[in-house]
User: Which sequence fits this backbone?
């Protein structure tokens, strides 16, 4: 829900009907951002003036009788690794500070075409590398539910923006869990769509074969609507699936009667906090109560997901991030020769986590090691995809926790490998190229939100959302203490 | 197969990646990358001789674009973000050596 | 079981060196003899309207940084999409050299250099689109083609200060107009055994690329660039020694010089007990030498991996067959055709040159209209050589040759008429001949001139009559010249020769 307590669907309905102006909606949200952004730091940039101008344009068009689109006047927050024409895009990195893209990402164009209004660019772990949004060059984002805790990452700013009601919906990107994990930590819905369903054109790449843009929302319906708006073939992305955007909202209430749900054995045992595991089992019971059959299923190869991921993603990143060299855009640190300038620029411009992954990836691709590392990890992808395919022969959707734990404290995890373990439940989906959604389902003993992950096969979004809707409806209401406790440490 | 990564390896990849690391960083990175690679030993150990690699999760082929001109950037727009420009071009310090 | 490992090429095939009866052999100062082993890498810019991976124009010579778009500049977030026409042209080349056109995959070749917008080049590595072709040279020697693959070109740096050279420059300026231009890199097997074969190979390749409209083949504009992989070995041996890659060869003439120089350099190095280092060397036209381009410590580690932003290309057998069927006649086929209609050997220079200049269609058509093949070839090779091959409709050429054959025009006159015909597309051979006053000299007038010249040179005539073949040949030139002079060039050379023969016999 948003500042006005309304969903995106509700806002679009009142704005389209002319009962409320888009400018009024935007002003209300900007006021809320003004009041609380100081403590949350969800944004790298709030585009208040541009948002008001766009809202006025939406109002003008509605007055003129135009169909402004399904997100008419809906405020949306956009992760700061999505290019916005004329608006600074930083990836939360010093190396891109001050860069103004001369073009819009395809998803940003589609948002505008649907009548949505971008209120700002949200904070992230630098180049989307991280699970806490602490790796931002511009300071961490805090979890609106408990300001002493992280919002998760890397799309922590987009998750926090929705949790804080700065906007009812936002866009993030998910390479190994970067939408679902922060969605779980912040108690909102987050979707990693099927690889190729949403255009990556204009998404500043981290790991090209794993990256997908996806929605955050307070409700499953809003998430489905936003995904419908941004999905569908884009000729500018050669990995984009040549199919139109699927009809998701239409089937939301089709229910789960007869649906076969598999609870993933490997992701519910060791290493999963008992409170989290308990909520997942309750969600499974809720699905069963709604008519689904639930059984445990083993997907053995997911055990290798983390290792494969930490060879593939850094390898692709090391190449994707080579272009940041001080020659054409962004930061330059002067030096007598071009080579020294490149080294000085990159050394000053990248933070430690980015450097770590660039070096790891460079190593994984370097002469003599390719077969043992990158090549081997790509074969593991095949194994994981095969194991998932076998599971989907027997089940329509799978169920697991989104994260092993709930939101941890700022600064609580210093060791990189321990931090990576946060993504153990989400990474396999990216490696397989399938889709998954995190739906909030109750809380742990500290009243922190728990996320339940529903996984579906490639292009299985319709079924995935049907199950998500049932889990959402069955979810215990967030205690009023938790809701009222927002913005307090 | 390499089990861990040596300090020299880290120095070498830093150089390949155009990053400069001081002695203290070299120690830290060597330990951290070593831990990650140690974790990856489970993957290295798998016998996957008969398993084909997956480079694209969605199996597409022949995604082609017609040979038709699209919008271009003006030289001014291209150079707007340049740290240094001269004479309609991107200016860089002395280049040592031809391209490989 | 371990077999001795044979050296293999980039695709894992065992390297074979072609035999040839034309092998460059260099004698080192100590008298040892070394033979050339050479393979050529040709980069041809493809004749597309747009770039390899984006819709920015593929056009040479425009203002810097204007033929660019966000993809060309490698701006963050941009993605490549493969140009269909570039794939088509690569496949066309594959068919033209009788190669396999196969499923191909793009990879990233990673290295930092300021003229490369992404600091990686998208290229094809272990799965190129074209493999295993062959190219028959005009001499008949066959050079194997290992592979041809698609990739993108880099931008261009100009150096300020230091006389415009990279060494000693104060700073450099980068223009990305050329970045992303589609390239076909064509890699030959080490089947080139002499500098002349290298020249023929590149010339032949250019003819094919131009004939099939794959590339404009302009070496001077850099749309065709040649690197030579050169090694030498003891004459008659079958070893493979360390090779060097020679870059910056900008003309066929440089190619010949660079190969001869580099073969000699390596031979002397081996002969004196030194070692040839595997390295890239730069040909310097001004001093006629090759120079080391960069030190070995910058070891190549391009960290190739499959380009995750692109999917494989697989045209399929049916499409490839269509492309093959639509190929125009290729130079080797055209040489055979011209040789057939003229009766010349296929390796005759006139045949080779006519096809190289693309004037064989014209020649064949004129001959098929009934014109004398020998005279047509002479006109095409010698008289239509202006600007590398002037155009003249076959019917007009045939008419001219007919006038010449019938004796109405002399060879000298025909040449003058031809020039007029080229200059004035509406002129006819008969019309020009008449306007110039070229009329066949009647037999009586010619006889009078011949007899006059004989009478004026009795001593020479006696030598001509009594002389051996050599003397007769020499003096025949003298008499013909005198007669031509006296007739003001109107005498027909053949009629003169016949008259001289008749008089000396009589």
Assistant:
């Amino acid at each position: 829900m948003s500042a006005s307590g309304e969903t995106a669907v509700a806002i679009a309905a009142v704005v389209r009907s002319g009962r409320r102006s888009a400018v009024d909606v935007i002003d209300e949200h900007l006021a809320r951002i003004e009041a609380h952004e100081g403590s949350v730091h969800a944004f790298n940039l709030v585009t208040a003036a541009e948002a008001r101008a766009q809202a006025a344009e939406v109002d003008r068009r509605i007055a003129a009788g135009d169909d402004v689109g399904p997100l008419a006047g809906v405020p949306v927050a956009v992760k700061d690794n999505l290019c916005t024409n004329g608006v600074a895009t930083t990836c939360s990195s010093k190396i891109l500070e001050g860069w103004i893209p001369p073009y819009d990402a395809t998803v940003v164009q589609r948002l505008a075409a649907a009548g949505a209004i971008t209120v700002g660019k949200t904070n992230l772990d630098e180049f989307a590398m991280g699970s806490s949004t602490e790796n931002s060059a511009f300071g961490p984002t805090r979890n609106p539910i408990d300001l002493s805790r992280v919002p998760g990452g890397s799309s922590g700013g987009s998750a926090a923006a929705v949790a804080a009601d700065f906007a009812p919906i936002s866009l993030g990107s998910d390479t190994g869990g970067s939408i679902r994990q922060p969605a779980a930590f912040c108690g909102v819905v987050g979707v990693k769509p099927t690889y190729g369903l949403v255009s990556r054109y204009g998404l500043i790449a981290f790991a090209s074969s794993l990256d997908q843009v996806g929605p955050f929302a307070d409700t499953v319906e809003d998430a489905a609507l936003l995904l419908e708006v941004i999905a569908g073939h884009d000729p500018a992305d050669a990995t984009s699936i040549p199919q139109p955007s699927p009809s998701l909202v239409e089937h939301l209430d089709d229910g789960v009667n007869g649906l076969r749900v598999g609870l993933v054995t490997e992701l519910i045992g060791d290493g999963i906090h008992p409170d989290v595991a308990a909520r997942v089992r309750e969600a499974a019971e809720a699905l069963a109560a709604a008519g689904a059959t639930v059984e445990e299923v083993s997907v053995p190869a997911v055990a290798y997901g983390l290792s494969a991921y930490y060879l593939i993603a850094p390898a692709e990143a090391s190449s994707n991030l080579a272009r940041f060299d001080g020659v054409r855009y962004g930061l330059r640190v002067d030096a007598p020769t071009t080579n020294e300038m490149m080294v000085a620029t990159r050394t000053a411009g990248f933070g430690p986590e980015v450097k770590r992954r660039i070096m790891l990836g460079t190593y994984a691709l370097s002469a003599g090691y390719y077969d043992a590392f990158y090549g081997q990890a790509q074969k593991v992808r095949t194994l994981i995809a095969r194991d998932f395919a076998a599971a989907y022969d027997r089940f329509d959707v799978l169920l697991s926790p989104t994260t092993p734990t709930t939101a941890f404290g700022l600064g609580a995890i210093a060791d990189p490998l321990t931090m990576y373990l946060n993504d153990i439940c989400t990474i396999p989906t990216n490696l397989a190229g399938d889709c998954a959604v995190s739906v909030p389902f109750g809380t742990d003993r500290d009243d922190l939100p728990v996320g339940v992950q529903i996984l579906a096969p490639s292009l299985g979004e319709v079924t995935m959302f049907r199950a998500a809707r049932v889990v959402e409806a069955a979810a215990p209401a967030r205690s009023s203490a938790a809701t009222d406790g927002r913005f307090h440490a | 197969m390499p089990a861990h990564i040596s300090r020299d390896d880290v120095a070498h990849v830093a150089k390949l990646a155009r990053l400069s690391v001081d002695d203290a960083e070299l120690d830290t990175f060597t330990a951290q990358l070593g831990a990650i690679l140690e974790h990856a030993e489970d993957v290295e150990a798998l016998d996957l001789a008969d398993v084909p690699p997956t480079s694209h999760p969605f199996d597409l082929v022949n995604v082609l674009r017609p040979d038709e001109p699209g919008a271009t950037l003006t030289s001014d727009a291209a150079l707007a973000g340049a740290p240094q420009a001269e004479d309609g071009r991107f200016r860089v310090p002395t280049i040592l050596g031809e391209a490989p | 079981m371990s077999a001795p490992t044979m050296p293999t090429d980039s695709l894992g095939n065992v390297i074979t060196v072609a035999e040839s009866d034309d092998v460059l052999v260099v004698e080192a100062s100590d008298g040892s003899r070394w033979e050339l082993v050479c393979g050529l890498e040709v980069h041809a810019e493809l004749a597309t309207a747009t770039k390899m991976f984006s819709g920015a124009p593929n056009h040479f010579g425009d203002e810097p940084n204007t033929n660019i778009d966000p993809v060309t500049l490698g701006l963050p977030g941009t993605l490549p999409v493969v140009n269909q026409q570039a794939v088509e042209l690569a496949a066309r080349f594959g068919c033209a050299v009788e190669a396999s056109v196969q499923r191909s995959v793009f990879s990233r070749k990673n290295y930092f250099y300021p003229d490369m917008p992404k600091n990686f080049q998208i290229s094809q590595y272990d799965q190129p689109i074209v493999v295993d072709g062959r190219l028959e040279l005009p001499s008949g020697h066959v050079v194997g083609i290992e592979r041809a693959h698609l990739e993108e070109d880099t931008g261009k740096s100009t150096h300020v200060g230091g006389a415009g050279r990279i060494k000693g420059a104060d700073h450099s300026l980068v223009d990305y107009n050329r970045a992303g231009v589609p390239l076909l890199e064509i890699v030959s097997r080490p089947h080139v055994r002499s500098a002349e074969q290298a020249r023929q190979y590149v010339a032949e390749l250019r003819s094919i690329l131009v004939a099939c409209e794959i590339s404009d083949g302009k070496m001077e504009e850099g749309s065709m660039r040649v690197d030579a992989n050169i090694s030498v070995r003891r004459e008659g041996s079958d070893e493979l020694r360390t090779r060097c890659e020679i870059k910056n060869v900008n003309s066929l003439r440089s190619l010949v010089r660079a190969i001869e120089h580099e073969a000699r350099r390596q031979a002397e190095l081996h002969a004196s007990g030194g070692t040839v280092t595997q390295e890239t060397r730069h040909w310097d036209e001004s001093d006629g030498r090759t120079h080391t381009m960069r030190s070995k410590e910058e070891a190549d580690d391009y960290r190739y991996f499959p380009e995750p932003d692109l999917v494989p290309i697989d045209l399929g057998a049916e499409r490839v067959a269509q492309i093959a069927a639509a190929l125009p006649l290729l130079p080797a086929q055209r040489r055979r055709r011209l040789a057939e209609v003229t009766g010349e050997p296929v390796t005759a220079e006139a045949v080779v040159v006519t096809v190289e200049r693309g004037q064989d269609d014209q020649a064949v058509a004129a001959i098929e209209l009934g014109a004398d093949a020998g005279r047509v070839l002479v006109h095409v090779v010698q008289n239509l050589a202006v600007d590398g091959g002037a155009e003249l409709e076959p019917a007009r050429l045939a008419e001219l040759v007919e006038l010449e054959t019938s004796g109405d025009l002399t060879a000298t006159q025909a040449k003058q008429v031809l020039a007029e015909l080229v200059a004035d597309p509406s002129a006819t051979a008969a019309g020009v001949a008449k306007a110039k006053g070229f009329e066949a000299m009647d037999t009586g007038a010619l006889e009078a001139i011949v007899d006059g010249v004989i009478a004026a040179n009795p001593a020479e005539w006696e030598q001509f009559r009594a002389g051996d073949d050599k003397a007769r040949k020499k003096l025949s030139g003298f008499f013909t010249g005198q007669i031509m002079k006296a007739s003001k060039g109107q005498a027909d050379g053949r009629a003169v020769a016949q008259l001289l023969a008749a008089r000396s016999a009589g």
About this structure: Residues 7-45 of chain B form one domain. DSSP finds four helices and three strands in chain B.
